[in-house]
Amino acid sequence: MTLQTKAMVMGSFVVFFWATAATAFKIALSGMGYFELLMIASFTTLLISAVEISWSGKWSNILKVFKDQPRLVKFSLQGLLNPLLYYLVLF
Predict the structure, then answer these.
(1) What is the pTM for the complete model shown?
(2) Within the chain, what is the greatest distance between any pair of CA atoms?
(3) Using H for helix, E for strand and C for coil, what is the string for 6-73?
């Protein structure tokens, strides 16, 4: 498979999953408030990230970030920008 073909396949996946996520958010918003939905989405993201970090065995890298206070604050603030702050502004 050429690089161009791989790029097209990956681009198609991105479009498919982005459209699916937007539709899921729209359907979910009909049954709950936006803040509850954002909390569920953020917790789910945290859980999936923790599973991936455990699977790849990179907890030592995460612990290094927690030991470095300025980086931890910087990364925490960046983490609030997306998805939480982004969707609060959007809705």
Answers:
(1) 0.60
(2) 45
(3) HHHHHHHHHHHHHHHHHHHHHHHHCCCCHHHHHHHHHHHHHHHHHHHHHHHCCHHHHHHHHHCHHHHH
Residue range 5-22, pLDDT digits in tens: 999 999 999 888 887 887
Query: For residue 42, how many other CB atoms are within 10 A of its CB?
Result: 15
Angle among Cα 72, 78, 80 to the nearest 5 degrees reads 105
Measure the CA–CA gap between 49 and 27, rounded to whole angstroms: 24
CA nearest to 90, candidates 41, 42, 43, 35: 35
Asked if residue 5 lies in contact with residue 55, where contact means CB atoms within 8 angstroms, the answer is no
Gap between the Cα atoms of 12 and 6, Å rounded: 10
C-alpha count within 13 angstroms, C-beta hemisphere, residue 41: 21
Per-residue pLDDT of 81-90, as tens digits, reads 776 777 777 6
